[in-house]
Amino acid sequence: MANRLATEKSPYLLQHAQNPVDWYPWGEEAFQRAQKEDKPIFLSIGYSTCHWCHVMERESFEDEEVAEILNRYFVSIKVDREERPDVDQVYMTVCQVMTGQGGWPLTIIMTPEKKPFFAGTYFPKQSRHGMPGLVDILQRVAQLWQEEREQLLETGDRIVEAIRQEQPEGETEELKTATFEKAFQHFSRSFDPDYGGFGPPPKFPTPHIAGFLLRYWRLMGEEKALAMVEKTLEAMYLGGIYDHIGYGFSRYSTDRYWLVPHFEKMLYDNALLIYLYSEAYQCTSNPRYARIVTEIITYILREMTHPEGGFYSAQDADSEGEEGKYYVWQPGEVIKILGEGRGQAFCQAYDITVKGNFEGKNIPNLIKSGWVDGFEQEKERLYRHRLQRIPPYKDDKILTAWNGLMIAALAFAGRVWQKEEWTGAAAKAVQFIYCHLFREDGRLLARYREGEAQYPAYLDDYAFLTWGLLELYLTTLKSEYLQKAEKLAEETVDLFWDNTSGGCFFYGHDSEELFLRPKEVYDHALPAGNSVMAYNFWRLWAITGQERWRDLLDKQLKDFAPAVNRVPMAATFFLQVCWLEEQTPLEVTISGRPEEAEIKTLIYQLSRRFRPELVITIKPEDKPLTYMVCHKQACWPPVNNLEELLKMLAE
Fold first, then answer.
1. Are 89 and 518 in contact (CB under 8 A)?
2. How far from 600 is each of 277, 282, 629, CA to CA, in Å?
3. Which of 198-202, 303-307, 564-568, 623-627 has the lowest mean pLDDT?
4. Following DSSP, what letter does each residue of 575-644 receive, concatenated?
């Protein structure tokens, strides 16, 4: 029989709706029952495309023995971390403080008052290889709850107090010049010179690190910074983390070679990588980056887009209960589809062998071959054949934050390559959000699925959507996007701003209050919302000239500088914003009545080269067409034609 999750919209919760565990969604009903029956809370947090979440479900949550223990001694709650990132962030902090690490599935045991006293991630059902089993953990906690409860309660109080004391107390300072060098030296030491990336496996793409290094190269003249980015971008594409048949990047690689991923694909990774490869193209004019961006966007538009324009969240790693099954190949299968000659050539180029490179099968990759051209038709035929397989599960919920990132990426790429289709897709997604993800009172919401929008939007939703709107404005110069961005920024300050210590809290003052109200500046898989919001404040100031945005930016930079000075390598997006303090934006003021095509040509030409920032304003006075260019407090005379302007800029 279905449990209480059967009426939820979250794909992750629905995956657990047939478990024998008596799951509750997060809500007062669960906590009231725990208090009434005097039971601890078993909290499990994950997401629908998480491989180890599936493993723990099969081993434990579908198991009658585990369910019997949970149902007898605990009140069990399931949370989709993508719907409730506030809950996830608070309890992930607990796990990291208690264990020194984190991940999903996240396992928390806590009091009915939401105070945690046990934390971990994945646990097998039975103890093995030194790892405690879930059955042993649950039985021991149930015993302690009855016999030594005071000890558990004291543990919970100590954990909560320790985490609260870690929150910043309003200290401010200037960002130190040495902070940028400290971050660069860290990445230089951790860089893998053979295969790119930073640190040991598992290897993640981390686009915000590469974005920092591109700016370090541009502003500090450090060629090694650019070389590290180029090596990493090429190695990621050549590896199996990239889907060479259907396109798009998986979440991360389990090895240093970028060969074997956990095969889930996340919308936010691909959005940030579109942006990064576009910036790398601006820096290098490498045509390979154009091809990679085109392929990723092809994947997004044909597989991850709602008919009305919003973007889906993710695709699973598993199909038919087996990780990666949808994506791997055998040489005989490839030859049968492509024919003997082209099939053999494809197998040789893409490392498809009888021995295999992944559990006896093959992940197509170019690690040994290097970059190859000329297999476009073959890849299309293999893709069409692959569509006949049972596909991985697609998480079709639409998240405002992740859509904001994809809007920003598509608008930026559309500007760099003058692709109206990409810019149009970004505009259509904005229309989707404004049609479906605002409450009647105007409050932005976080998630849409099957006609239902829910959960007051978090800081990331506001910050990332504002970023997307500003990219669309700079690509199209349509004032509606700037007006929307300004309104969202104003609401962000109203809902999230800390009037005592500055910066923005993760959830709004009108949202559910947890034991901790986090205020984050360190990047994780996504750049920190506070850093992106600082970036938005700078752009709004640069575009509108309104000093209130500059004041908010200055406050952000000073409030978070102490944390960033301590650990700059964890706040690379923030460092990118800090460099804007040193830059006066390139400002192009177009007077007169220029033709739309002429403006688009100007935007396109200016966007072909990497610049920290670009701001374009239009003054449509009834005068002959002139171009006024301002940069770094220097002002050149007006010029009367586009060619003359571009020549001046190139010099």
1. yes
2. 22, 17, 16
3. 623-627
4. HHHHHGGG-PPEEEEEES---HHHHHHHHHHHHTS--S-EEEEEE--SS--EEEEEETTEEPPPBSSHHH
- Spatial contact of 467 and 402, defined as CB atoms under 8 Å apart: no
- SS3 per residue for 247-309: CCECCEECCCCCCCEECCEEHHHHHHHHHHHHHHHHHHCCHHHHHHHHHHHHHHHHHCECCCC
551: Cα separation from own chain's centroid: 28
- Kindly state the tokens that stand for 278: 């576009």
**Is the bond preceding residue 562 a cis peptide, omega within 30 degrees?**
no
How far is Cα 211 from Cα 280, in angstroms, rounded to an integer? 9
CA–CA separation, 205 and 291 (whole Å): 18
In DSSP terms, 587 is beta-bridged to: 615, 630
Q: For residue 503, which phi and psi values (nearest 5 degrees)?
A: 80, 175
Alpha carbon distance 57, 54 (integer Å) = 5
CA distance 30 to 26: 7
Cα separation values, 522 from 528, 529, 574, Å: 6, 9, 8
Parallel/antiparallel/unpaired status of strands 586-591 and 614-619: parallel
Residues 5 and 74: their CA atoms lie apart, in Å, by 17
Whether 555 and 577 have beta carbons less than 8 Å apart is answered as no
Reported as a single tens digit per residue, the pLDDT across 238-266 is 999 999 999 999 999 999 999 999 899 99
Report the pLDDT averaged over residues 379-396.
97
pLDDT at 33 over 90: yes
CA–CA distance, 214 with 205 (Å, rounded to integer): 15
Computed over every residue of the chain, the mean pLDDT equals 92
Q: Which residues pair with 45 in a beta bridge?
A: 79, 106
> What's the one-letter identity of residue 320?
E
Asked if residue 13 lies in contact with residue 78, where contact means CB atoms within 8 angstroms, the answer is yes
User: Does the CA dihedral 163-166-170-172 come out positive or negative?
Assistant: negative
- Strand 398-399 to strand 23-25: parallel, antiparallel, or no bridges (unpaired)? unpaired
**CA pair distance 639, 642, nearest whole angstrom:** 8
Please report how the helices 149-166 and 85-99 are oriented relative to each other, as an axis angle in degrees rounded to 10: 110
| CA-to-CA dists, residue 626 to 237, 620, 623, angstroms | 43, 11, 8
Residue of 340, 443, 353 whose CA lies nearest to 400: 443
The stretches of 420-499 forming alpha helices (DSSP H) are 420-436, 459-476, 479-496
> Confidence band (pLDDT; 50, 70, 90) for 594?
low
End-to-end CA distance of the chain: 72
Contacts of 182 (CB under 8 A, 6+ apart): 568, 569
- Give the integer Cα–Cα distance in Å for 62 and 19: 5
Q: Which residue has the tokens 């005097």?
A: 38
Q: How far is CA 346 from the centre of its chain?
A: 33
The model's pTM is: 0.94
Kindly calculate the radius of gyration of the chain based on its CA atoms and give it in whole angstroms: 26
